[in-house]
Amino acid sequence: xxxxxxxxxxxxxxxxxxxxxxxxxxxxxxxxxxxxxxxxxxxxxxxxxxxxxxxxxxxxxxxxxxxxxxxxxxxxxxxxxxxxxxxxxxxxxxxxxxxxxxxxxxxxxxxxxxxxxxxxxxxxxxxxxxxxxxxxxxxxxxxxxxxxxxxxxxxxxxxxxxxxxxxxxxxxxxxxxxxxxxxxxxxxxxxxxxxxxxxxxxxxxxxxxxxxxxxxxxxxxxxxxxxxxxxxxxxxxxxxxxxxxxxxxxxxxxxxxxxxxxxxxxxxxxxxxxxxxxxxxxxxxxxxxxxxxxxxxxxxxxxxxxxxxxxxxxxxxxxxxxxxxxxxxxxxxxxxxxxxxxxxxxxxxxxxxxxxxxxxxxxxxxxxxxxxxxxxxxxxxxxxxxxxxxxxxx
Length: 394
Hints:
Layout: H1 2-20, H2 45-48, H3 51-59, E1 73-74, E2 77-78, H4 92-95, E3 117-125, H5 131-139, E4 145-148, H6 150-155, H7 157-165, E5 169-172, H8 185-203, E6 209-210, H9 219-227, E7 231-232, E8 237-238, H10 252-268, E9 276-281, H11 285-301, E10 304-306, H12 308-311, E11 323-325, H13 328-336, E12 345-347, H14 365-393
Parallel strand pairs: 3-4, 3-9, 3-10, 4-5, 6-7, 8-9
Antiparallel strand pairs: 1-2, 11-12
């Protein structure tokens, strides 16, 4: 009875500790109203009327952007009954189109050209409770492509900096995670521009890639991103981990089945001539735990597990030239030399404050967690001793 009670107590306290990593902290970074959109809000007049945004807007060659009206959603569902079956806008949400039909618009990256390769990507970070997850990736010497939400970077700058420090490949995932085709041109531009701006401010890099939330993109949105020198990255394998309970309706077993299917594909030759770009999330503890659970099986089923920068042979994924990634050929050469390194970023970069890491004015999320972990350990020991004494007396 005592051991059972203690077991559940440990589980409970562990959950509390994990949540405590999300305690807000004060960093050296400041976000003055008007310089960025409101956190987790679709950009609006608070930035549209600023001189900065007007200058960015005027730099866009709008004649190169297709005149496509925003799509319409009602109660979370697209109204597509009147949309032409020919899919003239190359609307991914309609028919998974990845090859634009508008002239001059670049195609999406949606798969790795290298065979037997798993392009490892995680959306929706940085996550305030992902310390253990990033530890896991580091312990496995594994780099990934991280698609960061601008509002999360503003909320959790230390976690964003760690991702870059650990050598992960950083891309844009919009400011507020909207369905991009439903937005106006100004809103699309602001979602992308201010996410790139906050990443530059906090991390010192300017990403050249982005991923539309829900994959929702058409030629108008692609063209605006292209004007900002950002390539669109989609996927050809979707784990649906974000739909897992309690956030969604999928059971853990359903997501396990999806991952098992991916493992089978890696072993049966499905990707013998080209590879996969897989969609996973660092959305919450559930999705990150699922990623850790299936990582060994994915690693065993695919010959190479790499960031998309490597599988696409993009050696300089940022506007800054002092930060480089291994190409696929360089990764193969490194592997053949029996090196323990894996593809990832190297170089130096810093934000406008010269910060290579964020120095907090108060306790950061990690340090808070450390103290709580120590206190919790002591509490567990005391409770265990108390239970022991009670049963001895009985």
